[in-house]
Amino acid sequence: MERSPLTDTPRLVVISNRVAVPKARGAAGAQGGLAGALHAALKDREGLWFGWSGEESESGRTGNIDTQTNDGVTTATIDLSQRDIEEYYNGYANSTLWPLFHYRLDLAKFERETGKGYERVNERFAELAAPLIENDDVVWVHDYHLIPLGERLRSRGLKNRIGFFLHIPWPATRLFVSLPYHERLVRTMLHYDLVGFQTKEWLDSFLHYCRTELGAEVDEDSGSVTLDGRTTLARAYPIGIDWDHFSKLGETGEARNAQQRMMASTRRRISMIGVDRLDYSKGIPERIDGIGRFFDREPERIRDLVFVQIAPPSREDVQSYQEIRETLEQKCGQINGARSEVDMVPIRYVNRGYSHEELFGFFRASKIGLVTPLRDGMNLVAKEYVAAQDPDDPGVLILSSFAGAALQLQDAVLVNPHSPDDIAHAIRKALDMPLDERKARYEKMVASVRDENVQAWTADFLRDLG
Ligand code: F6P
């Protein structure tokens, strides 16, 4: 690819497991922040985005790469075979690393075969991506699917600046060491020039591991980790939303229609909303328990409220995801069965995604946003909810103190997502909050969402990598 004559900025090569946004899922926040953020990072500069197409076929094995340019972003994707998807994506990435990194050791499976599949697919990514990378490109690898990729690229002779960003939490050392071959995995991370985390908490856990388990020389102030004569920088870069894009959505007809649609259907009832991928880390059953507890305590307010939970299905071939879906259906069914009237249903549970525009309208129509993950690297739904509010009459964000976003959004009503009492209490507080307090909290939160946006995240990371 030719360099743009207007700029000396090196070309950016982004590599992530997921490239295309799954069409069926729509909603950006709900699909995970990664795809939307990387699209925003790439649309303003010369770059290439390499990864899995999301499709199953044998063609990736034969080196077949599909290259396309859409909306100013060039993507190069490969298909994965059924075995690769089973072992690498459903297996090691989403049945071992994901639960472990989200503190769910009880759900983590440790299978030798899936570990081998993970290494095999990382090797295939390296084999197919390396020829696309030119000498002065900057390479940015994303997320837990591709931890060893940097080391695999180095073994093919790449001397480029290579950075890695982890979009999910990094667990405490005593938990992380439950992973067989944990040392081997982390050693591969030290082949990157820069490793980024969402928050200082995850960064500190990583540095603690490197010092105590690997015996690396760690400088906490600069974030440098030195082992075997090689130094990697490790730092925190909280991801944000594409403020320019998101804040303009309110002007679209689609957003206005969605807002009207929600308001017309709820009439005089106050709506509360949750939008999450259907994932056990998001704390949705615990949230429903909290809402149930509120209804138990204040049954006279049920007629004034409606809770809308949008939860597009995710990773449906993984057993723990099938189980969480059943649990939720039961919980919503129980509360609705016990609390509905012929003309009123308290919980609307929706298993589909919506466009960014529609979500903006739903958020704006909802006086309370419930974002209560049990553990979350960042959580962009919280930031999108804030960005969508009417400055003259903003809603209240109820946010888990275990989401990375809680560090920046201290003016949300912070809750312990494991405690139904805490959630019930937060709902009451939000419902009774005077306008002045809602505005004061909103103004502080929106300033952070506006300024600590995805462009700032990209610029900070790439500055340090460069
Ligand atoms: O942000 C975490 C993450 O796992 C991303 O890597 C991913 O794209 C997103 O959530 C959605 O998950 P999946 O790609 O498995 O559908």
Short description:
With 466 residues, the protein is of the alpha/beta class.
Largest sheet: 10 strands, mixed
Please list the strands of the largest sheet in the order they lie side by side. 3-4-2-1-5-6-7-10-9-8
CATH superfamily of the largest domain: Glycogen Phosphorylase B
Tell me the β content: 15-25%
Q: Outline the low-pLDDT stretches.
A: 1-6, 22-30
Average the pLDDT over all residues and give the rounded result. 94
Helix content: 40-55%
Number of domains: 2
N-to-C span: 20 Å
Return the CATH architecture of the largest domain: 3-Layer(aba) Sandwich
In CATH, the topology of the largest domain is named Rossmann fold
| Tally of DSSP helical segments | 16
What overall form do the CA principal axes indicate? Answer: globular
Organism: Qipengyuania profundimaris
Pfam family, one: Glyco_transf_20
InterPro entries: Glyco_trans_20
Protein name: Trehalose-6-phosphate synthase
Structure description:
There is one protein chain. With 466 residues, this protein is an alpha/beta fold. The chain has 2 domains: 12-240 and 454-465, Glycogen Phosphorylase B (Rossmann fold, 3-Layer(aba) Sandwich), CATH 3.40.50; 243-451, Glycogen Phosphorylase B (Rossmann fold). It is built from 16 helices and 16 strands. The strands form 2 sheets. It has a 10-stranded mixed β-sheet with strand order 3-4-2-1-5-6-7-10-9-8, sandwiched between helices. The protein has a 6-stranded parallel β-sheet with strand order 13-12-11-14-15-16, sandwiched between helices. The longest helix is centred in the last third of the chain and has 21 residues, at 319-339. The protein starts with 11 loop residues before the first strand and ends with a helix. 6-O-phosphono-beta-D-fructofuranose binds at residues 18, 31-35, 143, 167-168, 314-315. Residues 18, 31-35, 143, 167-168, 314-315 line the site of 6-O-phosphono-beta-D-fructofuranose.
